[in-house]
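Pasting as-is:
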Amino acid sequence: MPASRSVPRKFARLLGIALLVAVAAGAVLREPAQSPAAPSVSTFAPVDDLLTYVDSCLESFAPVLASAEAYDRGKARLEKDADSLAAVALALHLHDQEHRLKHHAGVMFHAAQRLATAADYAAAQHAWGALQAANRRETSAVPELAWQRAGEMGIVMKQVTLLHNKLKRGARPGSRFEAGAEENARLATVLAVLAQCTQADVPTGTNPADTAKWYDLCAEMRDYCSQTSQALHARDQAATATALDRVEQNCNACHDVFRKQR
């Protein structure tokens, strides 16, 4: 074969190999960031806040699930609250402190998810029975779970907005702040847990380069909500307002990036 023809062919093969190596290297460089390890649950979600929230949910669910008619009227709200309960149950399952639901919260997590997604009243009743059994500690422990999504992203975001707005109203100076401080502290803890769950639910279509930003924003949301809860427990209105401002800034920063990618 003439040298004038073999050299270009060798060059072409070498060029092709070089391109494949470059593409492979680029793929490695663009690999999405790994979800960071979660801190100990006690650092952002006091166990007493979580247990009290479970009790309040079960109390509020009972009349909604008392009849098919009541369920039809209250299903939309129940769906949001059941997603929040699922997140709280997961936090209790993973909590680093012992508590009365430690070995039953995993079952409660799955039951709350089934309640949130129930197709009809019969399915909701079945999930409700499992929730009550877990609360009575009549269930067996499930295998260890990992942090994961609590519910469908759109519904969780609606719940986040509802809880955040309630906290802003309760943070205003005056008698309302003191009267609602304990309940609002628990709701801020619930928001912190929802943020931790959401970290594991990177939105579909997210640019790989923005995955690390998603993780960081969710972690910030968790920490700012935890700061809000601590300030409310301390009855510190100024610190509560500052923490809530940070929560709102975090929400806006997240929307600026991720709403544009939908």
